[in-house]
Automatic annotation (TrEMBL):
Keyword line: Acyltransferase, Lipoyl, Pyruvate, Repeat, Transferase
Listed GO MF terms: dihydrolipoyllysine-residue acetyltransferase activity; lipoic acid binding
Catalytically driven reaction(s): N(6)-[(R)-dihydrolipoyl]-L-lysyl-[protein] + acetyl-CoA = N(6)-[(R)-S(8)-acetyldihydrolipoyl]-L-lysyl-[protein] + CoA
UniProt-listed NCBIfam families: PDHac_trf_long (TIGR01348), PRK11854.1 (NF008814)
GO biological process: pyruvate decarboxylation to acetyl-CoA
Gene Ontology cellular component annotations, sorted alphabetically: cytoplasm; pyruvate dehydrogenase complex
Required co-factors: (R)-lipoate
General function of this protein: The pyruvate dehydrogenase complex catalyzes the overall conversion of pyruvate to acetyl-CoA and CO(2). It contains multiple copies of three enzymatic components: pyruvate dehydrogenase (E1), dihydrolipoamide acetyltransferase (E2) and lipoamide dehydrogenase (E3).
InterPro entries: 2-oxoA_DH_lipoyl-BS, 2-oxoacid_DH_actylTfrase, 2-oxoacid_DH_E2_comp, AcTrfase_Pyrv_DH_cplx, Biotin_lipoyl, CAT-like_dom_sf, E3-bd_dom_sf, PSBD
Cofactor, how bound (note): Binds 3 lipoyl cofactors covalently.
Organism of this sequence: Modicisalibacter muralis
Name of the protein described by the UniProt record: Acetyltransferase component of pyruvate dehydrogenase complex
Length: 674
């Protein structure tokens, strides 16, 4: 078995592209198509697959290296490798080898460079830099200028960044040299051929260089994907005189990927489409790109659908073109698909290259925010429904890695499982951002204790209600001076019957009475949001503070029970709650809740409605206050009433009536007999 050197295949003419990941190690046994390295430039990202299987003898690159087509990646002991496969280090063998590895699609990138850069000559000369072929877009905004007058610039350095509604792209410098003038500024709009500035570059033949050469160089610089102005003009003339023509549209050079799924078809038969309009979007684990139309015209046939898989040269459909104009990159794929190692002329090669806009489409930010991520990461994100713009990148240059996508999903799942109810309600259109996690230990000593089941349940219920119910709280006061006198007078008698007569049973009785008078408080909203469920019974819940959390036992048919019965039952249920003896059914069926903090203190609070009930009464501590009786201030024991209600079911005027009635009946309990 012999080893061979695996080289960087055709990478669409890009040079010095950074290796952002090396996915193989020495000793690994890899299969054909396994990813060896991932490349990412500011223009594109791609996985480089192994052209054949075998054992990795040596990895010749590392993360951070930059490579171009033909550079060594690794030494591979190929499966069943023989003499024929062996790599020789001379150029001809290299070419042959690359032809083996990939269908030869393009020339070496060097050939694509402007001719004058390759030539060396004495002296300096100044050349104009123009906006190259930008896929037919016109008046495209310059969103960034990356250079300044006087800068020494390398060929391919970004000069300006353009952004249209279809894509964003950097315009690279066609030469190395000094920028002597800059003719544009941020915010300007430009079209193909517009002057960006001028550069002083190393001359080729000094001042003797013929004008014609200069002009043709300029045109090839300015329009690398075009056949040249004169050709275009000719074609234009033909178009003007020609009959409508049916043109095939085929999948262009997609970097050697095969059977790539179509994830979107952006057009339909009969559509009028412009040249460069996206027809389909392809996405594999190695690349993602929009395939633009090479023609302007009417789509008269569509041969693919979402989910189909395609390779270079496959038929996408037919466009009826008004005239016989030759497209900029039409039919190149068919020619390019031919597996031959022959060199192609510069214009053919330019045709094969996807237009800059098409290249950029693969990497354009979907949500208006630039996200750096490799194609495999993009595909993973799409499969998991993750918006990459929301993922925190941890890779170099803020690149999103697969681990980041996984971490994002994990965090989302943890949040959901930690509080499924909250998550469900919080996402009910609210889109509430989570409270950020804080490491409190950085501020002092802390101890973490898991919340008990009851606390967690309470938290879930309160959160759900808080988010779902539009709350309003109505405040009022009840003069309970007489009630207190009566209660105290009855206390011993009640105790004899085994009841502790606190204000609570009076409150339950008063609320039951008010619910009968105002049945609109004794309802629940049906989940359909359109129906009210009117309850014919009056079951009242009482919030009980227990060491484990809040519980709400329910007194059934409170309207039918005596004060003594209510006193007994409330004490009994409170005890059960505090000793964890409450049964599930003793906490169900409530129509209305009373939350009394009267024995503790406070002047008012805003209780949270115990949904699906629609109202809750909060009670604060009664206090002796001076009350004007019409002629004098008299000391009266005033009890604060705080009625929170669901404003979807209850209107404010009714709430005020409800608390006013409570105030009346608590001031004079005889009213409840009326
Ligand atoms: N104003 C003044 N005094 C009050 C009062 C008020 N509004 N309410 C109760 N008191 C007095 C009682 O009269 C009693 O005094 P006496 O012994 O002299 O009669 C004393 O406070 C203690 O009452 P209690 O707490 O034993 O009984 P209760 O019927 O008032 O309350 C219960 C029972 C279960 C409601 C209460 O123990 C409790 O758990 N309250 C907390 C509820 C809670 O946490 N709510 C918040 C929920 S979140 O919205």
């Amino acid at each position: 078995m012999s080893s061979e050197i695996i080289k960087v295949p055709d990478i669409g003419g890009s040079t010095d592209v950074e290796i952002i990941e090396v996915t193989v190690s020495e000793g690994d046994v890899i299969a054909p198509e396994d990813t060896m390295i991932t490349l990412e430039s500011d223009k594109a990202s791609m996985d480089v697959p192994a052209p054949k299987g075998g054992k990795v003898v040596k990895v010749l690159v590392k993360e951070g290296d930059t490579v171009s087509e033909g550079d060594d990646i690794l030494e591979l002991e190929a499966e069943g490798g023989g003499e024929d496969d062996a790599e020789k280090d001379d150029g001809a063998a290299d070419d042959e080898k690359e032809a083996d590895q990939q269908p030869a699609k393009q020339q070496k990138s060097d050939d694509a460079k402007p001719a004058k850069e390759k030539a060396s000559g004495g002296g300096k000369r100044t050349v104009e830099i123009k906006v190259p072929d930008i896929g037919g877009s016109t008046d495209v905004e310059i969103i960034e200028i990356a250079v300044a007058e006087g800068d020494e610039i390398d060929a391919e350095d970004a000069l300006i960044t353009l952004e249209s509604d279809k894509a964003s792209m950097d315009v690279p410098s066609p030469h190395s040299g000094k920028l002597v003038s800059l003719a544009v500024k941020e915010g300007d709009t430009v079209s193909e051929g517009d002057v960006i500035g001028s550069m002083e570059i190393a001359g080729e033949g000094g001042e003797d260089e013929p004008e014609g050469d200069e002009a043709s160089d300029e045109s090839s610089d300015a329009a690398p994907a075009d056949d040249g102005d004169s050709d275009s003009d000719k074609e234009g003339d033909e178009a003007a005189s020609g009959e409508p023509e049916r043109k095939e549209i085929r999948v262009p050079d997609i970097g050697g990927s095969e059977n790539v799924p179509i994830i979107e078809v952006a057009v339909a038969e009969g559509d009028e489409i412009d040249e460069e309009d996206a027809l389909i979007t392809l996405e594999s684990d190695k690349a993602s790109m929009d395939v633009p139309s090479p023609f302007k015209g009417k789509l008269v046939g569509l041969s693919v659908k979402e989910g189909d898989t395609v390779s270079e040269g496959d038929l996408i459909g037919y466009v009826e073109v008004a005239g016989a104009a030759k497209p900029k990159n039409a039919e190149a794929p068919k020619r390019e698909a031919a597996p031959s190692g022959e060199k192609k002329s510069a214009d053919k090669q330019a045709e094969a290259k996807p237009s800059p806009e098409a290249q950029m489409a693969a990497h354009k930010p979907r949500e208006g925010k630039l996200v750096h991520a490799g194609p495999a990461v993009r595909m993973l994100a799409r499969e998991l429904g993750v918006d990459l713009a929301q993922v925190k990148p941890s890779g170099p240059k803020d690149r999103v890695l697969k681990e980041d996508v996984h971490a994002f999903v994990k965090q989302a799942m943890q949040q959901r499982s930690a509080a499924p109810e909250q998550a469900a309600t919080a996402t009910g259109g609210a889109g509430i951002p989570p409270i950020p996690a804080v490491d409190f230990s950085q501020f002092g000593e802390v101890e973490e204790q898991p919340m008990g089941r009851l606390l967690k349940m309470g938290a879930t219920n309160l959160h759900r209600s808080w988010l779902n119910v539009p709350h309003v709280t109505q405040f009022d006061e009840a003069d309970i001076t007489d009630l207190e006198a009566f209660r105290k007078s009855m206390k011993a008698e009640a105790e004899a019957e085994g009841a502790k007569l606190t204000p609570l049973p009076f409150l339950v009785k008063a609320c039951a009475f008010a619910l009968r008078k105002f049945p609109q408080f004794n309802v629940s909203l049906h989940p359909d949001g359109e129906t009210l469920v009117w309850k014919k019974y009056v079951h009242i819940g009482v919030a009980v503070d227990t060491p484990n959390g809040l519980m709400v036992p329910v007194i059934r048919d409170a309207d039918k029970k005596s004060l003594i019965e209510l006193a007994k039952e409330s004490v009994e249920l409170a005890k059960k709650a505090q000793t964890k003896k409450l049964k599930r059914e003793e906490m169900q069926g409530g129509c209305f809740t009373i939350s009394s903090l009267g024995s503790i203190g406070g002047t008012a609070f805003t209780p949270i409605v115990n949904a699906p009930e629609v109202a809750i009464l909060g009670i604060s501590k009664a206090q002796m206050k001076p009350v004007w009786d019409g002629s004098d201030f008299v000391p009266r024991l005033m009890m604060p009433l705080c009625l929170s209600y669901d404003h979807r079911a209850v209107n404010g005027a009714d709430a005020a009536r409800f608390t006013a009635l409570l105030s009346q009946v608590l001031s004079d309990v005889r009213r409840m007999l009326m």
